[in-house]
Amino acid sequence: MKIAILPGDGIGPEIMAQAVKVLNVLGEQFDMETADVGGAGYAAHGHPLPPATLALAKSADAVLFGAVGDFKYDSLERSLRPEQAILGLRKELGLFANLRPAILYPELAGASTLKPEVVSGLDILIIRELTGDVYFGKPRGVRECPDGPFKGEREGFDTMRYAEPEIRRIAHVAFQAAQKRGKRVTSVDKANVLETFQFWRDIVTDVHKEYPDIELDHMYVDNAAMQLVRAPKKFDVMVTGNLFGDILSDCAAMLTGSIGMLPSASLDASNKGLYEPSHGSAPDIAGKGIANPLATILSAAMMLRFSFGKTEQADRIENAVKKVLAQGLRTGDIFEAGTTRVGTEEMGNAVVKAL
Amino acid sequence: MKIAILPGDGIGPEIMAQAVKVLNVLGEQFDMETADVGGAGYAAHGHPLPPATLALAKSADAVLFGAVGDFKYDSLERSLRPEQAILGLRKELGLFANLRPAILYPELAGASTLKPEVVSGLDILIIRELTGDVYFGKPRGVRECPDGPFKGEREGFDTMRYAEPEIRRIAHVAFQAAQKRGKRVTSVDKANVLETFQFWRDIVTDVHKEYPDIELDHMYVDNAAMQLVRAPKKFDVMVTGNLFGDILSDCAAMLTGSIGMLPSASLDASNKGLYEPSHGSAPDIAGKGIANPLATILSAAMMLRFSFGKTEQADRIENAVKKVLAQGLRTGDIFEAGTTRVGTEEMGNAVVKAL
Ligand SMILES: CC(C)[C@H](C(=O)O)[C@@H](O)C(=O)O
Ligand SMILES: CC(C)[C@H](C(=O)O)[C@@H](O)C(=O)O
């Protein structure tokens, strides 16, 4: 069980240290190796995804990722900016299936900006395709506009595209995930406007024939954004493309009000995966010892479950996290009157103790 | 002042009748002519945007639009479906600037799924570019995948594109709108991933030089979706592309919980416009006389303001709407205990009386 540990920037190293501590007390044999990524990769090796880091990630059975990005790197040209590391890892490792649970722990219902009755008990799984769509489609660039009313003017352009096998495999992931949950899948598209997503809808409908036990419905992305705000508990599994998934998964995460609690997994065809918290690198609070390490710790649990098949150990970690919440321990981001405010390390230690 | 009246499908005719009634008591001379559009256009003339309807819309000074769409037309091929009418009108009339206010009337704060302190007094203006982007970009279609790992497979594809003049003109609309409001513009893009939107950001930044009185910030679309849920009152004017605007404007509308109250305007370069409620055709309640006509009535007010320069008449209508709300009159969609439930026509009559 070789794990590439990529702490990254901002609060990345602090929260990663807690996840590593948790992994170390499980009584399993992990081979963990650490490398620089993001701004830290650029600072030390001149590239956000240094060759040695990519090689390590490729050779490992799973990648545990902190977060990348810092104000310091904002003025770099795009190909050198920290977030290129994450795009590069997804593409190079073939991590096409991004699983993002949006779960609201009952103890944290107050943290949401939504009324408690609308969100308490929320448990959605958003499955976002991660290596296709307009994110990677070519051709793309800035050119002289070739036709239409603005012919001859400069224009920026990108290509949105999805091939049939790309849609099929992510649809299978969604239907199989639904079989282990509420047995309902909502496929989100924009079939009324986009050829790519009419095609998406046709293929998802076809794959659905293999899953008669699952209820499938199709929803336009604008309506999905509305329904997430109006009645998010109606969803079970949502599956969508890379761009819509980027927007909707962040929206769903924010519904919980506690994005510091939400892990994510990005998987390839054989369940090798990259695991990372859903939140960012929060450079404004880096080094202060106040960041919430729970999303990273829960990402480690997802790793045990999906990449290593260690369901029991994953359950142990998730239960330990529930226990510290029940004990009233809170980092600043989820603190409320009547609970006990703790720092990053205390929170990590409390999880270790609960194990 | 020639107005094309296009009631459309579902609740369209009922709500339009109330808006027409309101226009008729203002003491102005309007030349109103009605035509079929959407499913009604298809049913009567075999096309959602019949030639006579398009000709009327082109010859009019403004278009007042109800809503289109009905279950009955779901199985038609895409080019004949009701929503093609709205895409066709936007493109044919050059309506590139979509203005969608998301306003929460204090009396209706309870209708939101968000906590009152998060949304009460909300007043955002979303400006969505409406004739470009991946909505209309060519080439598009289903083809054999020409390259990459899925070469030879079928793929759906579309072209995302924005030419410089398209971005410039919508940026001007946003900055000028902000001058009449809170003097802040948030431009929403995905410059970290898309060439189209790095170009967008560069051009918006350049146009901003002409508006030193306006504060401009740039935000990624995923973050914008989160901030709309987290702290929507921080926004003043938001400007974005066609696809992101489709998603974010519906999300923002739903924050208010009273989408039956929200009008919209779609303008061309000389303030000719199409005005329509932000909600849909609600075929499930069509013909029952219970739909909320206020968004359509407020759309008529926007028409008076933007296309006819009749600021005073627009104010009169908006004040009349505030008055009926203060009187406690509510259609079913915004009804709460302690208020008086009224139907579509009673609501229209109440606005007329308040005038
Ligand atoms: C950093 C950025 C490129 C990335 C994305 O858009 O995919 C991020 O927003 C995410 O969701 O992981
Ligand atoms: C009906 C559809 C084509 C349309 C759009 O996507 O623009 C609608 O969602 C809107 O926002 O007016």
From TrEMBL, chains A, B:
Protein name: 3-isopropylmalate dehydrogenase
Entry EC number(s): 1.1.1.85
GO molecular function per UniProt: 3-isopropylmalate dehydrogenase activity
Gene3D superfamilies found in the cross-reference section: Isopropylmalate Dehydrogenase
SMART domains in the record: Iso_dh (SM01329)
Pathway: Amino-acid biosynthesis; L-leucine biosynthesis; L-leucine from 3-methyl-2-oxobutanoate: step 3/4
Cofactor note: Binds 1 Mg(2+) or Mn(2+) ion per subunit.
